[in-house]
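PROTEIN DESIGN WORKSHEET
SECTION A - STRUCTURE
LENGTH: 227
TOKENS:
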């Protein structure tokens, strides 16, 4: 079947796991050589029944799926829906709402919003993969003008002190590739910060942070180390 040109064709096309597999391999490994997302080795074996690859190198995550190391890794949503959602978003030149995605895929609006958010970020970075390096720095900051310089209408909406009225931006830096990802976060609490770290940083990586309590507990899934 040719590449889909309508939503109905996309749904039918990505319903076939082999088409999903072919698409993912072309996106992640253009030369056709599947590589271990943990160590980068191309000496891997495909386990057809399990739909997994096994790396011959000795490390804890020897087996991996097409999702491992990508924005899809920690999601229970199947590749058939993820890739159809990508097709929808990429082909709607004027944008598409999460409600339209939900109707097209048969998922909840909340799920569609979650998928849209991740896919939009991947498209901005032009990559489906997480940071490749094993050492990532994480930090956050408040961005915005001083209250005394604001118009009185805006100043009137501000309550509290410190970062009140300012946008909070979180930065992730891959020490090896120098790749940076900037993210808007709603607050500096642990749930918000750790969710983004676990979403974009590969499990088993060292995460370098300051002593802010919001990062405590990362060692449950990532090797966390403050500086």
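SECTION B - SEQUENCE
RESIDUE ASSIGNMENT:
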């Amino acid at each position: 079947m040719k590449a889909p040109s309508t939503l109905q064709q996309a749904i039918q096309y990505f319903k076939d796991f082999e088409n999903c597999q072919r698409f993912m391999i072309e996106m992640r490994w253009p030369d056709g050589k599947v590589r271990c997302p943990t160590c980068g080795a191309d000496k891997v074996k495909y386990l057809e029944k399990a739909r997994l690859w096994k790396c011959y190198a000795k490390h804890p995550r020897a087996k991996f799926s097409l999702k491992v190391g990508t924005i899809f890794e920690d999601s229970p949503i199947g590749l058939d829906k993820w890739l159809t959602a990508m097709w929808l978003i990429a082909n709607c030149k004027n944008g598409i709402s999460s409600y339209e995605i939900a109707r097209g895929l048969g998922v909840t609006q909340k799920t569609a919003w979650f998928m849209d958010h991740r896919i939009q970020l991947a498209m901005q970075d032009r990559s489906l993969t997480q940071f490749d390096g094993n050492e990532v720095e994480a930090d956050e900051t408040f961005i915005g003008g001083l209250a005394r310089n604001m118009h009185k209408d805006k100043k009137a909406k501000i309550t509290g002190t410190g970062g009140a009225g300012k946008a909070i931006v979180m930065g992730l830096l891959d020490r090896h590739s120098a790749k940076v990802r900037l993210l808007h976060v709603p607050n500096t609490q642990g749930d918000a910060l750790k969710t983004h770290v676990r979403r974009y940083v590969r499990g088993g990586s060292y995460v370098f942070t300051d002593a802010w309590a919001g990062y405590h507990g990362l060692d449950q899934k990532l090797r966390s180390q403050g500086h």
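SECTION C - NOTES
Residues 40 and 132 are 9 Å apart (CA to CA).
Residues 154-162, 223-227 have pLDDT under 50 and may be disordered.
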